[in-house]
Amino acid sequence: QVQLVESGGGVVQPGRSLRLSCAAAGFTFSTYGIHWVRQAPGKGLEWVAVIYYDGSNKYYADSVKGRFTISRDNSKSTLYLQMNSLRVEDTAVYYCARVRGQLLSGAFDYWGQGTLVTVSS
Amino acid sequence: QSALTQPPSASGSPGQSVTISCTGTSSDVGYYNYVSWFQQHPGKAPKLMIYEVTKRPSGVPDRFSGSKSGNTASLTVSGLQAEDEADYYCSSYAGSYIVIFGGGTKLTVL
Question: Is pLDDT at A99 greater than 90 in this prediction?
Answer without folding.
Answer: yes
